Amino acid sequence: MNEEEISTLHAPKQPILGEYPARKFGSETFVRRFQPEWYKKYPWISYEVDKDACVCFACKEFGKNTSFVLTNWKKSSKLAKHGKSENHVRSMTRWLQFKAMERKKTSVLQQLNSAHQDQVAINRQYLKVIIQSLMYTAQQNVAIRGHEEIRGDIWEISDINRGNFLELLCIRCNDLPWLKSKLQSQLQTHAQWTSPAIQNELLEIVASVMLERIAEEARSSDYYGIVVDETADISRTEQLSLFLRYVFNGETKETFTGFYSTKSTEGEVLYELLKTAIGRLELTLENIVAECFDGAANMSGPRKGLAARMKECSPLSIYVHCHGHRLNLALQDTMTTIEPLQKALGVIQSLHNFLEGSPKRHSIFNDIKVEDEDEDITLTIKSQSATRWSCRWAAVKAVVNQLPKIIEVLLTLSKDRDPKTYNDSNSLLNSICDFRFVFGLMVLKVILSNTDGLSRYLQGKQMDVATAKKSVDGVIKTLIGCRSLENFELLWSRAEIIAHKIKEQIEGTEFNFKDAKVPRFQQPSRRLQALVGEMAEVNAEVENRTEKDYYRITCYYLSIDKIVAEMKSRFEGSDQEVLLALADIVFNRSPTTANVELVSHFYGIDSELLSSEKNVFENIDVDFPCAERENAAKIVKRMFENGVHEVLPVAYKVFSILAAIPATSCSAERSFSALRRLKPIFEVQLVKTVKQHCPNQCGKSLCK
User: Fold this and answer.
1) What is the pLDDT of residues 613-667, one digit of tens each?
2) What is the pLDDT at residue 621?
């Protein structure tokens, strides 16, 4: 309570009315009213409007069981008589003394109130330091607590490691002089607010506030998309990761909402869990425009999958198979089908296991120098990811650029006395000294180098499905262009050069290089020859192929055709008409009428208004460079920055829908790296925090 409120509270009420209530007294034929002039003559009176009565403020507030009330305006002389009474004089004395103390700020009430305000401010400042320190450790992903947390002298430097949180408070005492005395005083009252229970509670409150802010932003957006993926944590418990993708103030955001444990990964169980999680965030299921999952049966099944069940409660939702998973599956099917590629990948993985599996062998590999070695190239032999096939480009590049060095270290280790080292090095040398491995390595370089950039792009947060489709089409055209005799001749010559260098390097050793050759053609039986006699000419042609023709047709062309066919089938076969229509409206200057009608009908938008606003948008295209028109998120951001979203609300709504549709579930996969840093108990508590809402249904969290 401030000084003005205190002063107003301890003063008589003297309202000035336009007309005071009129009453008759006794047998009088006229009416009488309260006279406002009495305020000046008797400053201690207080007029109560609801009772139409006059009271003595001094006697009422500062008297001892005495009060004066006047309701008969005929007997106004009682005011003067009361002003001379002994009780009134004592009450007036007390009132004047109180006013004097009030002016000097010596009032006990004010002193207590001021002291309370100061204490509240200090406590808030102290709590702010505690929360800031906790948030720092949380943001840096470091452990908060230590084994020996002695809190008796947090402000003093100690030889004992008390944990990152307490040590951070100790450092902050040097920058905040008042913090040391506050810690000491809080220690005496046993309320330092640094115990593990308080730490967990503060983190839960922060998490709840953050979730509430994310939910408010998603609710303010008309539509939003969801990204879901599941995996098992270190305790073998299935955890579901949920992300929300929405447009807020022109920014396309993809935010993590939490892990949700489940005992089953069936489509029905995941469906109920997802509905519960979204309900706790107080979001509307009908506003989901897309959900992005992987291609597992429990996610994408046409009948019992999570996507099919979500369609029941979210009619506007569109299932998007993660584009990153599509590319991985296309690469996987290609490289596990073509024998030279499969052999090359197996050798590369064996090289990593052999050279990086021992510090001794790793040291020998780093110390070996070969002729014509580029000192700027210092690549480590990479392990191959089981799921991210595009990451194998780093492993292939490391082997291609350091193949002479690898052969040299294998030749050195082939003379080792350790039987396992001797056997493994000899086996790897025999595998490398084979033209099939060299040629397979060259084909892998062509495929992975052209898909590596696409794989990295498909993992971005600002990417939309339309832009992803354009990038995929560009890579497919590039791979189709690689399928030519000219490119094969160049690849063959490079493979021969590498093979020649390997032969020179192993010359004088017990190892021999296996040149390119056509596998022996197995003749069918006479009985089978009689049945397929018309194939005799084809078989003869196969037998007469040269080594060069054999590798060109059965390895190079087959690999390119396979990866192109896989990418076309996976990226073109499951595109929805609504997504294509959205892309046509957002990126093309003159979208077709059919696409405008389709989008308008699907999302309940006036088609004529959408067409007119689209035309207006194209006329102000000078503010939208061509580079920013290639991405829906950039277009939406520029529209919001220039205030176009207020002038063209329908067009902005359609553009935001496309920006809110996720194209990849890589964000959910990236969140899995944090699972090992979370304790199962804390995960459950974090989920429970989202449950707690105001019982009055005001939409606010209790913690807030």
Assistant:
1) 898 888 875 455 554 567 888 899 988 988 888 889 999 999 999 999 998 888 8
2) 56
Q: Which two tokens stand for residue 475?
A: 């890579």
Residue 245 has pLDDT above 90, yes or no: yes
Asked if 115 contacts 132 with a C-beta cutoff of 8 angstroms, the reply is no
- Residues 311-320: pLDDT tens digits? 888 889 898 8
Percent of the chain with pLDDT over 70: 85
CB neighbour burial string for 453-468, b if at least 16 within 10 angstroms, e if fewer: ebbebbbbbebbbbbb
Q: Which residues contact 366 (CB under 8 A, 6 or more apart)?
A: none
Query: Which CATH architecture fits 204-322+665-691?
Result: 2-Layer Sandwich (3.30)
Residue scoring higher pLDDT (99 or 451): 451
For the CA atoms of 365, 369, 375, 376, the dihedral, rounded to the nearest 10 degrees, stands at -20
Q: Which two tokens stand for residue 54?
A: 């006059």
Helix axes 403-413, 359-367, angle to 10 degrees: 130
The torsion of the CA quartet 76, 81, 85, 87, rounded to 10 degrees, works out to: -10
Alpha-helix residue ranges (DSSP H) falling in 483-552: 485-505, 526-531, 536-543, 547-551
Q: If you search the block for the tokens 């199962």, which residue do you land on?
A: 680
Q: Which has the closest alpha carbon to 591: 610, 574, 572?
A: 610
3-state class (DSSP) for residue 255: strand
Q: What distance, in Å, lies between the first and last C-alpha atoms of the chain?
A: 24
- Find the length of the chain: 704
To the nearest whole percent, how much of the chain has pLDDT over 90?
28
Mean pLDDT of 543-562: 87
Burial of 330 (0-12, 13-18, 19+ CB in 10 A): buried
- 295, 569 in Cβ contact below 8 A? no
Report in angstroms the alpha-carbon separations of 307 from 288, 304, 449. 12, 8, 33
Q: Please give the helix or strand (H or E) that residue 298 lies within, else none.
A: helix 297-300
At residue 535, the pLDDT reads 46
Other C-beta atoms closer than 10 Å to the C-beta of 509 total 13
How would you label 205-237 residue by residue, b for 16+ Cβ within 10 Å and e otherwise? bbbbeebbebbebbbebebbbbbbbbbebeeee
Parallel, antiparallel, or unpaired: how do β-strands 288-293 and 318-321 relate?
Answer: parallel
54: phi then psi, degrees, rounded to nearest 5: -120, 130
Question: Which residue in the block uniquely carries the two structure tokens 């308080």?
Answer: 198
DSSP-derived secondary structure letter, 272: H
228 SS3 class: strand
Sheet holding 53-56, edge to edge: 45-48, 53-56, 69-70
- Residue 600 is predicted with a pLDDT of 92
Average pLDDT rounded to a whole number, residues 8-37? 84
Q: What is the mean pLDDT of the chain?
A: 83
Domain edges within the chain: 3-106, 109-194, 204-322+665-691, 328-569, 577-660
The token pair at 185 is 């005083």
Query: Where is 353: in which H helix or E strand?
Result: helix 339-355
Whole-angstrom distance, CA of residue 610 vs CA of residue 310: 28
Does residue 494 surpass a pLDDT of 90? Answer: yes
Phi, psi of 681 (to 5 degrees): -65, -45
Distance CA 337, CA 332 (A): 8
Q: Above 50 in pLDDT, residue 340?
A: yes
Nearest to 18 by CA among 49, 41, 45: 49
pLDDT digits (tens, 9 = 90+) for 613-628: 898 888 875 455 554 5
pLDDT of residue 687: 40
